[in-house]
Each structure stands twice: as structure tokens, then as C-alpha cells.
Amino acid sequence: MRAAIQRGESRTDLEKVRAQTPYVWDGTNDDDRPLTAEAMKAGIAADRR
Q1: Separation CA 46–CA 49 (nearest Å)
Q2: For residues 34 and 25, is the Cβ–Cβ distance under 8 A?
Q3: Which of 9, 31, 40, 47 might form a disulfide with 4, Cβ 3.0–4.6 angstroms?
Q4: Sequence ranges of the domains in the chain
């Protein structure tokens, strides 16, 4: 978002940046695969223990 402000994009453009998917997995490396919602919940639950 800071980069969008520095480029001089308008407030509407900032909303577009916020609405975009932050990361898209390209499928080449399983270590870079985003967590599923279930995996994220399991990790949070394990951390709380």
C-alpha cells in the first residue's frame, strides 16, 4: 500500500490494491504453497497450547 501511495495512486486505486489476492501460488514449489484455512486453524490451536 505504501508503494501505491508513493506512486501517487488515488484512494480508489488503493482500495483496488487492498482487494486483490495477496499471493498466488505458481505451483512450482510445495514449500511456497499457501496454507488452507484448516491448516491455519490447526497451527493457531497448536500455538495456543
Answers
A1: 5
A2: yes
A3: 9
A4: 23-49
pLDDT band at 42 (very low <50, low <70, confident <90, very high): very high
How many angstroms separate the CA atoms of 16 and 4, rounded? 10
The pLDDT > 70 percentage for the chain reads: 86
DSSP 8-state secondary structure symbol assigned to residue 27: S
- Report angle CA 14, 32, 38 to the nearest 5 degrees: 85
Grid coordinates belonging to 34: 499457501
Closest C-alpha among 21, 16, 17, 15 to residue 34: 21
Q: Give the pTM.
A: 0.42
